[in-house]
Write a structure and sequence with these properties.
With 317 residues, this protein is α/β, with parallel strands linked by helices. The protein is 37% helix and 19% strand. The chain contains twelve helices and twelve strands. Bound molecules: beta-D-ribofuranose (BDR) and calcium ion (CA).
Length: 317
Amino acid sequence: MKDDQRQKIIIDTDPGQDDAVAILLALASPKELDVLAIVAVAGNVGLKQNALNALKIVELSGRTDIPVYAGCDRPIRRRLVTAEHVHGKTGLDGPSLPEPRIGLQPVHGVDFMIETLLASQGKQITLCALGPLTNIAMALAKAPQIAGRIKRIVLMGGASFEGGNITPAAEFNIYVDPEAADMVLSSGVPITMIPLDVTHQALATKPRLGAIGQLGNRTGSAVLEMLTFSERFDLEKYQWDGAPLHDPCVIARLLEPDIFEGRLINVRVEVASELTRGMTVADYWAVTGRKPNVEYLRHLDADRFFSLLTERLARLP
Ligand code: BDR
Ligand code: CA
C-alpha cells in the first residue's frame, strides 16, 4: 500500500504475561501498527519456551499472519538468569492455551532483523524491545550499518528513581544482559526507554483487571488469567493496589505518545561491578555533561493507559 501511514514495528520479546499483553495490544491495533514480526529472545524463561509462548499468543489473537522467529538463546557474555519465580514454569502460566498449529520461521531472528532492516527504505522500522536486548545488540554487532536504518528502539528496561526489581540496583531486562544493553545504548540509534519509574505507575488494580476480564471475549479471559497469575509475586513484594504492567507501555507509547512524559538524558549501563550489575545510571539532572542518548520516560497517565488497553483488547476474538 503506497500511502500506508502505519508504523512498522518488530517486537523483540521473552513472553512473559506482560509481554503477551503487549503483543495483544499491538495486534489489536492494525490501523496504527504494521507488525512485521515477533522475535523471541531468552529471558523470563529459556528461548524455546519463549518462542512457543509467542506462537500461542499469536494464535490467541487470531493474527496467524504474523511470523514468529527465534533469536538468541543466551546473553552475550553471561549465564542466563530467568524469572520463573514471577512468570511460572512456562513463563506464561495462568491460562491454558492450546498447542499452536503455526510454527517458527526457519531463519534466526537476528538474521531476519538484519535482512529486514537492510531491505527497508530509510528509517522506517521501530524495534519494540520487551526483554533482554541480546538480539538487537547481536544484530548491531553483526551488521553495524543497520543502525542507520532503525527509526527508533522503544524498550522496556532500566530503573533509576524506583530502584531495581531483580537486585536493588537493576531492572530484570538490563540485568540479564548488561553488555547487550550497553551496546544498544551506545549505538547512536534513537532510543525511548520505559523504566520501572514509569511502569510502577501502570498498576493493574482489581477494577482495571476486572474490566478486561468482563470483555466477554477469549482474549479478555486469557489476559485476566495471565495477570492474575503473574501479579501474585508483585502484590506480595510491593503491597500495592495492583501489580505493575510493564511491557504494554512500549506499545501504548506508539499508539498514544502523550500518555507519557519524559526528557532526553544520558543513560549508561553498569557492566563492571557485580554489586550494581545492569544498573542504568540515568543523568536525569544533567550533572555529567555526557551527551543525551535516551528519551527517558518518567510519568504516565494510568487511567488513559488502561482505557486504551481495555478498548483495544475488546477488538480481539
Ligand atoms: C521486565 O522483566 C520481565 O520479567 C517482564 O516481562 C518485563 O519485561 C520487568 O522488569
Ligand atoms: Ca518482558
